Amino acid sequence: MFAATALSSFVFAATASAALPKPDGPIKVPTDLAGVKLGMKIKAADDAWGGKGDCQTSGDFKYCNYDGGAQGSAQLAAEQGEISSAGINAGFKDGKYNFSGPLMKFETKQGLGLGDKISKVKKAYPKAKKNGTAGFYVPGKGKSSMGFTTNDQKHITGIYLSDGLGG
């Protein structure tokens, strides 16, 4: 998905570090990443996550990065001021994924979050579709979706919300 790829490229674009976000409620699959919804204003989304993002603007595109180093990262992306994608990613420490820290509080109503076994996604969400070896995505309204990615083929290492339009 383009939006998820665009999001990951902005993880490294921010120069200042920002505190990791705090969830504003549970993850509601496939519409709401712990208080952040597609189409909401980026300022409101940043506020929902505690208002500590390192936010930048490039033309009509705005993004906020939250860098927690080994504890992970989170991103918000907006086109024309409205959220088009959001994501959280597990950190990496001593050569493996680190499933500790504030991002572990981001969970679905079914209790799924970073570090859980990727196989649990299909059980919790029967409409989830396989996304190659990258994990699963749950289709939403229109082209939108929520993805559960795995980079170690065992655990959820990232969760993203995307409008699927990708410019």
Features:
32% strand, disordered N terminus, globular, 167 residues, single chain, two-stranded antiparallel sheet, 3 helices, alpha+beta
- Kindly report the spatial arrangement of strands forming the biggest sheet: 3-4-5-6-12-11-10-9
Number of helices: 3
SSE class: alpha+beta
Approximate shape? globular
Q: How large is the radius of gyration? A: 14 Å
Low-pLDDT regions: 1-16
Q: What is the CA-CA span between the terminal residues?
A: 11 Å
| H/E series | HEEHEEEEEEHEEEE
Structure, explained:
With 167 residues, the protein is α+β, with helices and mostly antiparallel strands. It is built from 3 helices and 12 strands; from the N terminus they run αββαββββββαββββ. An 8-stranded antiparallel beta sheet has the order 3-4-5-6-12-11-10-9, with helices on both faces. Strands 1-2 form a two-stranded antiparallel sheet. It has a two-stranded antiparallel sheet with strand order 7-8. β5 (73-79) and β6 form a beta hairpin. The N and C termini lie close together (11 Å).
Helices and strands, with pairings:
Layout: H1 2-11, E1 32-33, E2 36-37, H2 42-48, E3 54-58, E4 61-67, E5 73-79, E6 82-89, E7 91-93, E8 96-98, H3 119-124, E9 129-130, E10 135-139, E11 145-149, E12 158-162
Antiparallel strand pairs: 1-2, 3-4, 4-5, 5-6, 6-12, 7-8, 9-10, 10-11, 11-12
What's the short story on this structure?
It is globular, with a radius of gyration of 14 Å. The longest helix is centred in the first third of the chain and has 10 residues, at 2-11. Mean pLDDT is 90; it is low at 1-16.
